[in-house]
Amino acid sequence: MLWILLVLPAVILAHHPSPNPVVANSGCGHHYVCKPASQCSVWYDELRTQSSKPCTDARGYVGLCCPDVVQAKSTLGTKIRANIPKSVQSIPSKVLEQTSRAARIDLIDMNVIEENLSFNNIKMTENSMAWTHSSSMAPIQMSHTQSAKALLIVNAGRRLQDKLSLSPEQAAFGLQGIDTRLSFLEDTCPQLPVCLLNKYRTFDGTCNNLLQTTWGSALSTMERLAPPEYDDGIWDPRSRKAGKKLPNVRVVSNVIVTDENFPAVDKTHILMQFGQFIDHDMVQVPAFRTANQSNIECCSTEGGIISPERRHPHCFPIDIPNNDPFYGPRGVRCLNFVRSMIAPRTECRMGYADQMNQLTHFIDASHIYGPSTAVADSLRQFVGGLLKISKIEGRIYPSQNFQDTSCVGRTPGVGCFVSVEEDGKVRVELMRNWFNNPSLLRQAGILDAWTINDIDLFIGGLVERHLPGSMLGPVFSCIIADQFARSKEGDRFFYEHGGHPNSFSLAQLQEIRKMSLAAIICDNSDYIIKVQPLVFRHPSSTNPRVDCKSSVIPRMNLAAWKQSNVKHLMPHSLLFHRIVSDSCCKMSKSMIFTALLVCSVLQNSDLSPLPGPRPQDMWSNVNSQDHTEEDAFMIAKGVTQEEIEEFHRLNGFIPTDNQAEGQGRSFGKIGEALKFWNWHAFDSFRHWIEERRTTTIKPIPVYIVNNPDESYSFNDIYVSSARPPYFIPNPVVVVTKGGCGHQYVCKPASQCSVWYDELRTQSSKPCTDARGYVGLCCPDVVQAKSIATKYPAIQKNRVLPAIQPIPTSLIEKSSRAARSDLIQINAIEENLNLKKYTMSETSMAWGHSTNMAPLEMSRIQSDKALLVVNAARRLQDKLLLSPEQAGLGLQTIDTRLSLLEDTCPRLPVCLLTKYRTYDGTCNNLRKPSWGSSLTPMERLASPEYGDGIWDPKIGNSGKQLPNVRVIRNSIVTEENFPAVDMTHILMQWGQFVDHDMIHVPSFRTINQTNIECCTAEGGIIPPEMRHPHCFPIDIPNNDPFYGPRGVRCLNFVRSMIAPRAECRMGYAEQMNEISHFIDASHIYGPSPVIAASLRQFVGGLLKISKIEGRVYLPQNPLDKSCIGKVPGFGCFVSVEEDGKVRVELMRDWFNNPSLLRHAGILDAWTINDIDLFIGGLVERHLPGSMLGPVFSCIIADQFARSKEGDRFFYEHGGHPNSFSPAQLQEIRKMSLAAIICDNSDYIIKVQPLVFRHPSPTNSRINCRSSIIPRLNLAAWKQ
User: Fold this and answer.
1) Would you list the DSSP string of 733-765?
2) pLDDT tens per residue, range 951-998
3) Distance CA 172, CA 352 (A)
4) For residues 959 and 946, what is the distance between their CA atoms, to the nearest angstrom?
5) What was the pLDDT predicted at 1054?
6) Measured over all CA atoms, what is the biggest interatomic distance in the chain, rounded to whole angstroms?
7) Quick one: signal sequence residues (predicted)?
8) Per-residue confidence (pLDDT) for residue 105, from 0 to 100
9) Burial tier of 65 (Cβ tally within 10 Å: 0-12, 13-18, 19+)
10) Does the CA dihedral 44-46-50-52 come out positive or negative?
11) Residue 337: which of 428, 474, 237, 407 has the closest Cα?
12) Rounded to 5 degrees, what are φ and ψ at 567?
């Protein structure tokens, strides 16, 4: 159990009730009780000296008389802490960004190193001892992904250390003050799982501790007894101490471990085997592998030393002295040793590296059933709860993998057995007396220049003298005792813990405690008919071999698990009450309550009493003389039948059929009505009702965001046929009509814009409203409620074409190949850079590309989407799938059940906060990622890629599509047709709103430079020399503008894509980098990191810069993306940096579909072949509109969704933080005219409807006129 001794599985203590007691003794003396022999093993030595005789317990089983002591609760010491970390100076965010980017390049450089090593044939020989050991330490794919994230943090920390000249201690501890969530390493932070109160453990160990949901989970770091001593404080292995080089590890090994054999006289081989089994259940630390999952070789094939500059960065080989007694004569000078994988910290901090545990940290058989859902599913039959098996000569074995060659000495035609624990090799060495002699190190001269404090913990533990009756010395004994105490007390699902909803009953525990390893060996062996009860000990008079059928080796009686014992269960919510009642958890009560509240909302549960029978009617048949305390409570609180059923539903407690038909549906005396509850359950129910009666929080409506196919109307969510009143948006508060005719009301001009054309023809005159503001007489109609939630489903092709079943191994190979494809792109980029295919900073293409540049977190998400797309394309090629089968049929593959599991976006943890989130998550509580930044945009129809997945469409039915530049020249000419009744502000405001809702970034290189798809002179680059993300526009020779200038190519880089929220393969989906809501995310930032970089954190202000005494946005002198900038001034910093005005207005040319016919473009095509955007531009516009029917419908649909799909839209009422009618009335006074007036220096007059040209109905007036009203903040007084 080597790793358990050095670093502990991170199982932290939780409070549990006292263990269930043992049965009464029978036939034993005072202070003794009769137990099965397997439960007396801790007193074995005492019983042997006292010649303890067998006894019979109350059930007739033969056992031994053991001391009658209550199982002591472990007292665990606190973890050894390091000294307070040495603080480092404040680190500028720019330095963090630079080091983070450099850290990512370091990982790419490692891939290049691996390719060079492979090219130089420095790779491991299969079936060698090093290969066998490395294969047994191989990581699973998700371990590789998590370790890469940890390496990013480590590399960034080391770069910071070099940049700031930090000492090892400062780097190890001081850098822990940096929260990676507030840097460009945000994606490396492990996301918290969403925990439900399930009956069983999770496969990956998450949610065992409900306050620290990742503690003890797979792929997390192990807990340390003491901080590590890396040479640099972060990652370099310790090689010297106080300037002196540490002794050679092989020399130390030869001194301590010799070839002599000293078997333990009173222990059997089963002790070591079972120790290995438990060890491999709790800990598996994988070793690093290459990007293509091959073993790393740190020595030459002949065992020679490889020069350090040619070694893999993860190598740490063992040098063999020339006089080594075993390897010396064989000429071996190097033993392969690869460093262990590391994991990112749960608390998302920099600092020293922490090793990864690939399995869960609990004793839960995760090495058998798998540490994740994907791995577990690959081992299961999904029939009768069975695992997959193979049969060899009629005998049942684990399933075989014939492609796996990692098992040594395998029989031809027989594959390696498949399980999570594939080690399978038996360690034949037993503990030796040599291990208990510390003088060995002194005798060998190893300690001559060292103190005892310099000795490695593991080496010191091996040589310390053992305690009486133990195989270990005091240090190892203490560590192992502490570890197993933590493994029990820190495991919420440990079988002996009582008081939980699914705890074993006393009778069940009694049966479980009968079981022993002796019984397991007897029941699962073919030829063993006798065995000693204590199989870890050799047979003796106290531990004789007995027949396997003897009652001395009792078995479990499953009768204790009959359903009648369900009364021992208690509701899940009691677990919450236990947690929040603990004094150490007081700070988390609000969080726990919020989690319960979210659960109730998600299950459509109102927090006010539900409709149902009146309490006096419901309990009228309860005789007042028979009232118990419970009865009185039910009547006093007016408990309804629906509330009882809801409580059952919320807490996962469903009565059995006979209970539901009998007791559960009758409401007589409470003792009868709820007699299948225990007192714990009713206590929890009482607490739930009291909270329910005192809270004033109303349920939260669930709006659609961007997926109409899965949208919910209010009537779908709530049983009531009428929408609850607190969900009705605040109506327009109509002011008293002042001088307007019948059916008209006086409103500010800005609120009359929808009737502008009608008012203009009727020569509507100004009026004065009840508050004295001047406005216009507009139709007196109640604001119509949008019907966005009633939209019919978008007519997508939802019938997925059938494809053949795809073997898991093929998906795995395609996934690995997809990762190699990404690495290949990096190599292509280096080659392009070498050949100077880079973009000129003064070109127009550079300015446009810079405006479309992605954020760092966008690139990370897009890489994940590319992995999925590349894997799908690999599968398409392998299976010869049609475009339709690939684009739609592959959507049946769930990436969560494959090696692409890390590409699946994780759901955010939503709390009922007062305000929006920066990234738009948790707006919709049913679908918390809908409308959030870095997610795909919703489609009106499925795309038409050339291959169905990702290749652009360049033809149809074998015909090449027309050149886009030719179409553009046909539709847009150089003539100017300005809109006669619209101002330039219309276009500007349209851009502003557009950029608030959508920003689709373009791909960039790995080092964040723009991609060039044409030569510097506008020439065509051969396809084989282009970047894979290029899709340049070919320019015809006769182009009226570019032709005479010799330009034959315009740069065009493809848009970034995002992984699907539902974690499926299929066609690529373009990414929206900002939130999909109208929420000013292009101003304040689409993430907490970016928002923080724009804020002063003083008075709620954003950062600013002052130029000639005037306030502007902050400047970034290092940013070269703004064109025509004045020397000495930087680019302004904001999320929305476009700033360039589009001077083209809508033209009559855009409303003439005959243009395409006249240009001959449609001669060989049907109307269905025309691109939607082009078709929308040339369709004839509707009366009074600037758009045709298709674009009018799409835009109206979008803005209806933008309102109805936004839970925080300002007009929505019924929320805890909704605006009041008075506040809404003030908000509705504001107009763009008022904003222009209040924020301009030289504008003193403006027309109220700034999108329209001035007219008699819309005349220019003084900015101070009451016709342009302002907001009165008095409505917001507390």
Assistant:
1) -PPPP-S--TTEEEE-GGGGGGGHHHHHHHTPP
2) 998 877 777 888 989 888 888 777 777 777 889 999 999 999 999 999
3) 5
4) 12
5) 96
6) 115
7) none
8) 87
9) buried
10) negative
11) 237
12) -65, -15
pLDDT in tens, 472-517: 888 899 889 889 988 998 899 999 988 777 789 888 998 998 889 9
Contact criterion met (CB below 8 Å) for 1073 and 1066: no
687 burial type by CB count under 10 A (0-12 exposed, 13-18 middle, 19+ buried): middle
Cα torsion for 862, 868, 870, 873, to the nearest 10°?
Answer: -140
With both helix axes pointing from N to C terminus, report the angle between 141-164 and 93-119 in degrees, rounded to the nearest 10.
Answer: 120
Residue 831 token pair: 């080659």
- Which amino acid does the sequence have at 821? D
* Per-residue exposure over 1189-1227, b if at least 16 CB sit within 10 Å of its own CB, e if not: eebbeeeebbebbbbbbbbbbebbbbbeebbeeebbbbe
Q: Which residue has the tokens 């007519």?
A: 795
* Helix, strand, or coil (residue 547): strand
Mean pLDDT across the chain = 75
**534-543, 836-845, 1056-1065, 1113-1122, range with the lowest pLDDT:** 1113-1122
Q: Is the dihedral of CA 415, 420, 422, 425 positive or negative?
A: negative
Mean pLDDT, range 326-350, rounded to an integer: 94
- For residue 321, give the nearest of 258, 249, 256, 259 by alpha carbon: 249
Task: Give the number of residues written for the chain.
Answer: 1278
pLDDT at 4 over 60: no
Q: Which of 514-518, 656-660, 1220-1224 has the lowest mean pLDDT?
A: 656-660
- Phi-psi domain of 425 (left: phi exceeds 0; alpha: psi -120 through 50; beta: other): beta
Kindly report, residue by residue over 832-846, the tens digit of the pLDDT.
888 888 888 878 888
Q: Is the pTM of this model over 0.85?
A: no
Number of Cβ within 10 Å of residue 1121's Cβ equals 16
**Cα–Cα distance measured from residue 576 to residue 592, given in angstroms and rounded to the nearest whole number:** 7
Nearest Cα residue to 354 out of 253, 236, 248, 220:
220
Contact 844, 1012 (CB under 8 A): no
By the 8 A CB rule, do 1262 and 1234 touch? no
Residue type, 222: M
Residues 972 and 969: their CA atoms lie apart, in Å, by 5
DSSP 196-251: ---SS--TT-TTSSSSSTTTT-TTEEPEESS----SSSSSSPP-EETTEEPPPHHH
